[in-house]
# Entry
Amino acid sequence: MIDPVILKGFRDSLPNEEIPKKKIIRVLEDGFSSYGFVPIDTPVLEYTSVLLGKGGGETDKQVFHFEDNGGREVAMRFDLTVPFARFLAMHSSELALPFKRYHINKVWRGEKPQKGRYREFIQCDFDIVGVDNAESDLEILSMMHNSFKLLKIDDYTFHLSHRGLFNTFLEKQDLLDRSVDILRAVDKLRKIGKEEVLKQLCEITKDEDKAGKIIEYITAGEGNDFETTLSKLTDLACGACPGSERLWEIYALLKEMEIADKFTLDPSITRGLDYYTGIVYETFLDKLPNLGSVCSGGRYNNLASLYTKENLPGVGSSIGLDRLLAGLEELKSPILGNTSSADILIIHKQDQVAMAMKTASVLRNAGLKIDVFLSPEKKMKQIFDYASKNNIPYSLTFKDGSYVLKYHSSRESFETESIDNIIKEVTI
# Structure
């Protein structure tokens, strides 16, 4: 007999986990569609050459790659952004620009599993490609805000920064050639703390003063509002530059939309992936600061250039559904409340099969979820155990031309000859 085990970092999803996840996905998809975004899909497997070297050395170590049956070097996608860049290079002539897409699917990373994070997990990406301006940056930020609103999440904060502005600062410090290593160190600030990051920066820069300047830059937002922080960063970068001007423009638009209170300027946000060039952001649930970011992304104007000479600037964001779901469960979010497989379980006798199926059809046409119990020979205790395990609140039986509706939690029954009364009772 084969031992039914599962790989570390992977998991099965039971119905009580999968039902709320699918609900969240439907809510998000409806929200994306309301902004004019369209769905796409890409293969799970790509040529290794397509994926490796696009996210940075640390990311490459996490990619699952192997030789397939045809002797080809292939890899499993570690995110949805790099395959999207390849997708654009192959299909740009078929797409209307600016192109707005969303993509919700699984990705794989060989990293250490932790709470709310697995080696196999679902990403939810949405991007705008073909335009580089504050309006497109704002639309992504607005969609992030709208997504959290639709999910009935109130206590959250979007942390913004700008890689271009940070690079300008590093250039003034003559450290731009070491930016990759510096970004990696800064990206660990929340995990290892300021003192440890300072040690790493001293090793990278070989200059305590410059390392201290970097710490001053990435902590400039502590205790300051957006405008004060941006003024400090501009001064540290030795004056206005395209990065600071873009941030001023975005902030003005956020204020006009009256959503600026949900955004904070946090220069410690650098996003470790190499392909980001403009604004970057991470999102934290205020009541669960240790959970990590549940929504992140930024502008990547040069990623598609790895595959095509066509200029295809992009900006996008990714929601980590598994981590977000873990957070919502801990917060006991009402959106996760209903995990029932159906609204009503129809119970029938052997000679009532046609009646049960016909009734189910009518109720389904009325918008209800109906489960017809398919083993009428079972005892009632077994049937009600089935209803309990599937969190089905009502059962419906047939009695002398009437319908009997039973509400399981209160044990109350309701008898009527009208199926419309059943619909009204359940949908109240």
The radius of gyration is 26 Å. Residues 1-138+312-329 form a domain with the BirA Bifunctional Protein; domain 2 fold (CATH 3.30.930.10).
